[in-house]
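Narrative summary of target 7.
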Amino acid sequence: MQDLATRFIAEQSKDGSDYFIDRDVKPVEERNSKQLADNATAVSTEAPANLGLSAPPVIVLPGPFKPRHRFKVLQQFEGTLLEISGDECRARIRDLTKPGFVEEITFSIEEISESDHNIAVPGAVFYWDIGYQDRIDGQRLRVSSVRFRRIPMWKEKDLISSQREAESLSETLGWKR
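Modeled conformation, tokenized:
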């Protein structure tokens, strides 16, 4: 077994040989502890300057993902926007937490986030969540959130075209309706 003070140094020598062994490295206990304490970062992340080596930077990876908040749903709705008139929106909503409940509502256009304004058109589907947001600092907030579904809506001409294509394919395959 090799001496514990022996270490391999990854350095290409001038004559072209790959690596050499440095046997003059002192164990950590014998090093100047004050120098280590004063210059801990340099000692742990950089190669000693007298060896002529350059060490790659140390990359500290973040730990596991910790959510900044949790959301406890109290009520959840799916709605269809019926019309926008001035600063109000009229919609038909159905309750996702208590199925069977359908109602027409009016709400302020201010409830719609700025990024959803261009897709908030009659016929657009949205989700309305009401609940508690528990933040990482312990604060609890009551939150009402309206977000629009970003799946494109079917146009009438696309539906008719798809129906014709399905009928043609059905005939070709000999399927009967």
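Residues 61-177 form one domain.
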